[in-house]
Amino acid sequence: MLPTAPSNDAAAPWTFVACDEPDTAELGRILGALAEAGDVFALSGGLGAGKTALTQSIARGMDVVEHVPSPTFNLLLVHQGTIPLYHFDLYRLERADQLDDIDFWGTIEADGLSVIEWADRFPESMPPDRLDVTLEVTGPSERRITLKPHGPRHRLLCDAVRFEMGERP
User: Fold this and answer.
1) Fewer CB within 10 Å, N side or C side of the chain?
2) Domain 14-164, what architecture?
């Protein structure tokens, strides 16, 4: 559990360069281990940027034992770990009103962590308290991963991730 946040919830983005898949996996594992019910990770990045791979590592950090595939054709998959993992993929949706069909808002307010791939398709529909995670391909196995916290809870989470990754916030 993270400490209570001060009232100022503004935070600058933090960028991490993952040189290879193990670097990305470590970041994901830490995010998953620190996740709490009600957290929302809004993932963005092009095809092949590593959104699903990062989510699989987040799941490992949450002690999810089953395989975590991309939910592209399901839109939402639920996995049980220390808390439920709600894994969304919004790629196939065309309009924000289609989020109603998958009980998007009810699910992100539920008892688990919501990881949303392709969150940038509907930025106006993302909750105000969330962690934006942008993945950019910068080499064959290198990724630039930017964490941008919104709201007090996710600012504290971002600071804790930075600390766990060996950087003083």
Assistant:
1) N
2) 3-Layer(aba) Sandwich (3.40)
